[in-house]
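Before we proceed, please read the two lines closing this message. Tell me what the token row says about the fold.
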Amino acid sequence: MFQSGVEERLRDEYEEDGYLRPAYDSFCFANVPHTVASMLGTETGRTLPDEAFAGLETDVETVLVVLIDGLGLNRWRSERDVPLLERLTERGTVTPLTSVYPSETAAAMTSYHTGTLPAEHGVIGWNVYEPTVGESFEALPFVTKDGRQPGLEPESVADADPWVAQLDSAVDVHYVTGFPQHQQYATIHEYEPIEALGPTLEGALTATEDGSPSYVFAYVPHLDAAAHEHGTASGPYRETLEEVSAQLERAFDGVDAETAAETLLVVTADHGHLDTDPERNVDLTEIEVLEESLARDPAGEPIRYAGSPRNVHLHLQEGTVENVRETLTSRLEARVYRRERLLEMDLFGDRSPSATLERRIGDLVVVPRDLGVWYGGEHEPEELDLVGMHGGLSPAEMLVPFAVARLHDVGQYK
């Protein structure tokens, strides 16, 4: 069952002129981890409305969350003939959710793994400028542009602690990821190529302790990479989605029927993608007034890298903000927000902003309508060559699926 009525309500309440704000208080991706915790017997925060489980019994031993990075709601509907997606829609419940702002992996996955909102954890995008050390760094790989570790500890990237630590100690936790993390809280099952996803996930599911509540989390990054390079309407995107689905089905089919009957499957995503036009994406280095107005780091270099091409944070010299804003508003098809306005709108979350967030937000934040906007030339021209992008507020980026079903109902058990 696809809950089209939820999408209609989200658009009616949160969309304005093609820009869709996060529904933090209801159908939002940030509420997924607390919903999982609730099903496992621990209340850790705000959960999704009960409507997201319409017609389903959620009293299970194991909750399996498969997070397919970059699978937007629009692509779920367009690719319905993929057998796994079709069965999930027919035999389970698919509910639209909004992502967080920014609709970026760094921000959204930090929200997932900490159970906090961007307003609290302070990760404002893939690129973060941290004033306390005077450096920009990439949040998830935690490196500067020249490959060094920035001058702060890894735990300082986000102003939050791991959410999984709040689960009851009786819960058996397994992570299926391409990189180890939270090893003190979970058994880590690493995999590298996409062909290893199926057997690795099957191994994690069969390794859960009998009779104990279990949480299995699988992170799948491959579709996001295909969307960036080729776009979501491309053959490689479709082929990658089919391979991901085949690997998941391989894992599900390897689980015995009794375990499958006691497992609730959740398939969701952190964000979708907007297909941009690399021929028209905007090189900010060509806007002279901006280049002249960028604030400088302690080494005297312009502060360029904060946010992403769909969520550009501009740190500016004193007295230049209004001039830059007027210039960008006249030259770009974009919303150009003052930092004060973003905080008033609760765009990063309906929580009091942390000091971490407040010092990292740019003086202006540029949210383009349908293109990428970044620093080309000698800086990062490869970013402007990407087709699929995310981080902004278009419905294509912001709306994601929350599909839930008993594993027994979608595997080959009938």
In short: The longest helix spans residues 235-253.
